[in-house]
Design brief:
The complex is a heterodimer. By secondary structure, chain A is mainly beta. In chain A, strands 3, 4, 5, 6, 7, 8, 9, 10 and 11 form a nine-stranded antiparallel beta sheet that branches. In chain A, strands 1-2 form a two-stranded antiparallel ribbon. In chain A, a hairpin with a 6-residue loop joins strand 4 and strand 5. The longest helix of chain A is centred in the middle third of the chain and has 6 residues. Chain B contains one helix and three strands. Chain B has a three-stranded antiparallel beta sheet with strand order 1-2-3, with no helix packed on it. In chain B, strand 1 and strand 2 form a beta hairpin. Classes of the chains: A mainly beta, B alpha+beta.
Chain lengths: ~140, ~80
């Protein structure tokens, strides 16, 4: 299998290359049964991606690379979370924050980032313990 | 709700693979150790609930490609 066709509620009919597939062994929190997602660029810069559920075409999340918008954001991920996705080298880790699109603002969930192991394409939504982090941090053009 | 009493260093087993052990009892705080397979997440209840609610809100609010608003971007190119 090199490509999967999805008729996505948000992306329309889209062909997903296997190389864009990521797997959440524990699902995304609140959606534990849905494990497979396709990561598709949402706009030209590549900072925003869709995480389109392969198993449920109606479910998609918008995600953002937090670094450029939140330069001080450097969460530490504990060993158990890393083990769950086979992550041993920090260079293999890609952070993504789930985005909520509101009427006026676009916000990022900094308290529960997604950690992607770019080497094996396994991912996990991690719950951080720093209670000062927001689930709705406004994303502002910098 | 199943109610069990445990002493320090005793455990309970949930299903076949999840083990919860009482590691320390200090005042009104209990320190628990949890062993679980990687397909099972374990989080503090109130934080999980907050994350789950935000995930659901994000999923519900996700626009279609056609309706995607202009997303904030870093302005200066490298």
């Amino acid at each position: 299998m090199t490509a999967v066709m999805i008729d996505s509620e948000r992306l329309g009919e889209v062909e997903i290359d296997e190389s864009s597939l990521i797997e959440f062994p524990a699902g995304i929190i609140g959606f534990p049964e849905l494990r497979r997602y396709a990561m598709v660029a949402a706009e030209a810069s590549g900072l925003y991606s869709w995480l389109q559920s392969v198993d449920d075409p109606d479910l998609a999340f918008l995600a953002v690379v937090p670094g450029p918008f939140f330069p001080d954001y450097a969460p530490s991920i504990n060993d158990d979370e890393c083990d769950a996705i086979g992550l041993s080298d920090p260079q293999d880790a890609q952070l993504l924050c789930l985005v909520t699109v509101g009427d006026e603002t676009v916000t990022a969930n900094l308290l529960g980032p997604v950690v992607l192991n770019v080497r094996n394409r396994l991912a996990r939504q991690v719950v951080l313990t720093d209670s000062s982090l927001s689930t709705r941090a406004p994303i502002v053009a910098v | 709700m199943l109610i069990l009493s445990r002493r320090l260093n005793e455990s309970i087993v949930i299903g076949d693979e999840v083990v919860v052990t009482v590691l320390e009892v200090r005042g009104d705080q209990v320190r628990l150790g949890i062993r679980a397979p990687r397909s099972v997440t374990v989080h503090r209840e109130e934080v999980q609930r907050e994350i789950m609610e935000q995930n659901r809100a994000a999923a519900a609010a996700a626009p279609s490609v056609a309706e995607l608003p202009k997303l904030p971007l870093p302005s200066s190119p490298d």
